[in-house]
Amino acid sequence: MLTPARIVLSRAASSIILVLTVCGCSASGTVAPEPTEPKASATPSTSAATSAAPTPSAEGALILGDSFTNRFSSPDQGDIEVLVAVSNYIHSTRADRTPYELGAGTPDDAWDALEVKVCAVKGNITANTNTWKLEAEDGTRYDATFITGGPKPEFVNDSSLRPGDCVIGNIMFVVPQDIRPVKALYAPPSLDKPQEWELHS
Which of 12, 46, 97, 199 could form a disulfide with 101 if both were Cys (CB 3.0 to 4.6 A apart)? Predict the structure, then answer.
């Protein structure tokens, strides 16, 4: 038979065990750590990358004189490296014929010239004028137009370049006289978005 004192002690012990169980404490009196959700790994998955993936552009726009290296993979050649640069820009220049005489635009349209350099660093490439565009402040883009008699040197379209070869020259664009483009764009299919050069400071 339990005495009144033993009954009190037994109830006290039961209360302590109940409190320990509810608060999540260990027998030593320290709080047991709460379970945490696993964090995602920062290591990229190698299976997500493919050789056909476009090359991301450089961060932000470049300025005249800056170069950009485009790296991508070709099914025929493997890894390819192309170095490109924009060295000069001329708004409203002259050529053998006006844009209007070529049936391009209106009498108020003019020629803009963009001097670029394209070099094959790794692999054989063909340098084309159609990978270049001018962009106005409102987002309007202007494509390259073939014309002779513009600023020298003239860009030789469809230039076949082997590693170490470069082509440099002016590419011509039909742009309204009162519009002054603010960006030059290099937009080959191998880039997920065009690389930009600021044309004004």
Answer: 97
134, 181 Cβ separation under 8 angstroms = yes
Owner of token pair 């001329």? 90
What does the block give as tokens for 92? 């409203």
CA distance from start to end of the chain: 98
Using CA atoms, how far residue 71 sits from 13, 46, 120, 129, 192, in Å, is 73, 18, 11, 19, 12
The tokens describing 105, both together, are: 């635009």
| Prediction pTM value | 0.70
In the block, tokens 């404490």 appear at 25
- Find the helix or strand (DSSP H, E) in which 5 lies: helix 4-23
The tens digit of pLDDT for each residue in 100-148 reads 888 887 888 999 999 999 999 999 999 999 999 999 999 999 999 988 8
What pLDDT band is residue 10 in, cutting at 50, 70 and 90?
Answer: very low
Q: Which residues on adjacent β-strands are paired with residue 142?
A: 134
Other Cβ atoms less than 10 A from the Cβ of 151: the count is 17
